[in-house]
Amino acid sequence: MRTIPLIAAQLLWLAAPFAAAQDAAEGPPRTQSPPGAEVYIQSPADGARVSSPFVVRFGLRGMGVAPAGVTTPNTGHHHLLIDVETLPPDNQPLPATEQIVHFGRGQTETELDLPPGTHTLQLALGDALHIPHDPPVRSARITITVTE
Asked: Which domains occur in the chain, in start order?
Protein backbone atom coordinates (compact mmCIF):
# COMPACT_ATOMS: atom_id res chain seq x y z
CA MET A 1 0.00 0.00 0.00
CA ARG A 2 2.83 2.43 0.75
CA THR A 3 4.48 1.59 -2.58
CA ILE A 4 2.01 3.49 -4.78
CA PRO A 5 2.40 6.88 -2.97
CA LEU A 6 6.17 6.40 -2.97
CA ILE A 7 6.22 5.69 -6.74
CA ALA A 8 3.90 8.66 -7.38
CA ALA A 9 6.16 10.95 -5.35
CA GLN A 10 9.23 9.75 -7.28
CA LEU A 11 7.50 10.33 -10.62
CA LEU A 12 6.54 13.86 -9.59
CA TRP A 13 10.10 14.52 -8.44
CA LEU A 14 11.47 13.28 -11.76
CA ALA A 15 8.96 15.35 -13.77
CA ALA A 16 9.62 18.63 -11.92
CA PRO A 17 12.62 19.75 -14.03
CA PHE A 18 10.66 19.15 -17.24
CA ALA A 19 7.72 21.21 -15.95
CA ALA A 20 10.08 24.04 -14.97
CA ALA A 21 11.71 23.97 -18.41
CA GLN A 22 8.27 24.12 -20.03
CA ASP A 23 7.32 27.17 -17.90
CA ALA A 24 10.59 28.93 -18.80
CA ALA A 25 10.03 28.27 -22.50
CA GLU A 26 6.54 29.75 -22.32
CA GLY A 27 7.59 32.66 -20.10
CA PRO A 28 5.27 35.04 -18.29
CA PRO A 29 1.95 36.09 -19.86
CA ARG A 30 2.31 38.58 -22.70
CA THR A 31 0.28 41.75 -23.17
CA GLN A 32 -1.70 41.94 -26.41
CA SER A 33 -0.90 44.74 -28.85
CA PRO A 34 -3.71 46.24 -30.91
CA PRO A 35 -3.90 45.54 -34.65
CA GLY A 36 -1.84 47.98 -36.67
CA ALA A 37 0.33 49.20 -33.79
CA GLU A 38 3.64 50.49 -35.10
CA VAL A 39 6.82 51.84 -33.54
CA TYR A 40 9.41 53.61 -35.70
CA ILE A 41 12.53 55.75 -35.55
CA GLN A 42 11.64 59.32 -36.56
CA SER A 43 15.28 60.38 -36.75
CA PRO A 44 17.93 59.77 -37.78
CA ALA A 45 16.86 58.34 -41.11
CA ASP A 46 18.02 54.98 -42.40
CA GLY A 47 21.40 55.49 -44.09
CA ALA A 48 22.07 58.80 -42.31
CA ARG A 49 25.58 60.02 -41.56
CA VAL A 50 25.72 61.61 -38.09
CA SER A 51 28.25 63.06 -35.67
CA SER A 52 28.26 61.92 -32.06
CA PRO A 53 26.48 62.82 -29.93
CA PHE A 54 23.21 62.74 -31.87
CA VAL A 55 19.51 62.59 -31.00
CA VAL A 56 17.30 59.57 -31.72
CA ARG A 57 13.56 60.35 -31.77
CA PHE A 58 11.00 57.58 -31.32
CA GLY A 59 7.58 57.39 -32.97
CA LEU A 60 4.54 55.28 -32.11
CA ARG A 61 1.17 54.79 -33.85
CA GLY A 62 -1.87 52.91 -32.57
CA MET A 63 -0.66 52.75 -28.96
CA GLY A 64 0.31 55.13 -26.18
CA VAL A 65 3.51 55.55 -24.20
CA ALA A 66 3.42 54.79 -20.47
CA PRO A 67 6.20 54.29 -17.93
CA ALA A 68 7.32 50.80 -16.98
CA GLY A 69 5.01 49.32 -14.34
CA VAL A 70 1.88 50.96 -15.79
CA THR A 71 -0.64 48.38 -17.02
CA THR A 72 -2.99 50.65 -18.96
CA PRO A 73 -4.24 48.75 -22.04
CA ASN A 74 -2.60 49.53 -25.39
CA THR A 75 0.45 51.21 -23.85
CA GLY A 76 4.11 50.39 -23.49
CA HIS A 77 7.54 51.96 -23.26
CA HIS A 78 10.48 52.09 -25.64
CA HIS A 79 13.66 50.01 -25.74
CA LEU A 80 16.42 50.98 -28.16
CA LEU A 81 18.45 48.10 -29.58
CA ILE A 82 21.92 49.24 -30.63
CA ASP A 83 23.95 46.92 -32.86
CA VAL A 84 21.81 43.92 -31.82
CA GLU A 85 22.17 41.12 -34.37
CA THR A 86 19.92 38.53 -32.72
CA LEU A 87 16.69 39.68 -31.10
CA PRO A 88 16.08 38.56 -27.52
CA PRO A 89 13.20 36.10 -26.95
CA ASP A 90 9.75 37.67 -27.20
CA ASN A 91 8.48 35.73 -24.17
CA GLN A 92 10.95 37.19 -21.65
CA PRO A 93 11.64 40.71 -20.33
CA LEU A 94 14.08 42.61 -22.51
CA PRO A 95 17.43 42.62 -20.68
CA ALA A 96 18.97 45.98 -19.76
CA THR A 97 22.42 46.06 -21.38
CA GLU A 98 24.64 48.56 -23.14
CA GLN A 99 23.03 47.38 -26.38
CA ILE A 100 19.41 47.27 -25.14
CA VAL A 101 18.61 50.62 -23.55
CA HIS A 102 15.39 50.91 -21.52
CA PHE A 103 13.26 54.05 -21.48
CA GLY A 104 11.07 53.03 -18.57
CA ARG A 105 10.02 56.57 -17.67
CA GLY A 106 8.21 56.90 -20.98
CA GLN A 107 10.87 58.90 -22.81
CA THR A 108 10.42 59.39 -26.54
CA GLU A 109 13.93 60.48 -27.49
CA THR A 110 17.51 60.12 -26.36
CA GLU A 111 20.98 61.41 -27.11
CA LEU A 112 23.49 58.74 -28.16
CA ASP A 113 27.25 58.95 -28.18
CA LEU A 114 28.50 56.11 -30.38
CA PRO A 115 32.02 55.54 -31.72
CA PRO A 116 32.73 56.24 -35.39
CA GLY A 117 31.60 53.52 -37.75
CA THR A 118 28.47 51.76 -38.96
CA HIS A 119 25.76 51.00 -36.40
CA THR A 120 22.23 49.60 -36.40
CA LEU A 121 19.30 50.95 -34.38
CA GLN A 122 15.92 49.35 -33.75
CA LEU A 123 13.06 50.08 -31.37
CA ALA A 124 11.06 47.50 -29.44
CA LEU A 125 8.04 48.35 -27.34
CA GLY A 126 7.78 46.61 -23.98
CA ASP A 127 4.84 46.23 -21.63
CA ALA A 128 4.78 47.16 -17.94
CA LEU A 129 7.27 44.35 -17.22
CA HIS A 130 9.58 45.02 -20.24
CA ILE A 131 8.15 42.02 -22.11
CA PRO A 132 7.49 42.51 -25.84
CA HIS A 133 3.80 42.65 -26.71
CA ASP A 134 1.97 39.89 -28.58
CA PRO A 135 2.43 40.35 -31.45
CA PRO A 136 5.69 42.26 -30.91
CA VAL A 137 5.74 45.95 -31.79
CA ARG A 138 9.18 46.55 -33.30
CA SER A 139 10.57 49.04 -35.78
CA ALA A 140 12.56 48.27 -38.86
CA ARG A 141 16.27 48.05 -38.14
CA ILE A 142 18.05 51.09 -39.56
CA THR A 143 21.73 51.56 -40.33
CA ILE A 144 23.58 54.78 -39.62
CA THR A 145 27.18 55.85 -39.97
CA VAL A 146 28.83 57.85 -37.20
CA THR A 147 31.48 60.02 -38.81
CA GLU A 148 33.17 61.38 -35.69
From this structure: 38-146 (2.60.40.10)
Give the other-Cβ count within 10 Å of 44's Cβ. Answer: 18
- Counting every residue written for the chain, the total comes to 148
By CB atoms closer than 10 A (0-12, 13-18, 19+), residue 131 is: buried
Would you say residue 22 has pLDDT above 80?
Answer: no
Contact 83, 99 (CB under 8 A): yes
Q: Quick one: which of 29, 36, 123 has its CA closest to 74? A: 36
pLDDT confidence of residue 84? 97
Q: Is 0.90 surpassed by the pTM of this model?
A: no
Residue, of 17 and 129, whose pLDDT is higher = 129
pLDDT over threshold 80, residue 19: no
Q: What angle do CA 111, 121, 138 make, to 5 degrees?
A: 115
Residue 124: name the closest of 134, 105, 138, 136 by CA: 138
Looking at residue 25, its pLDDT comes to 58
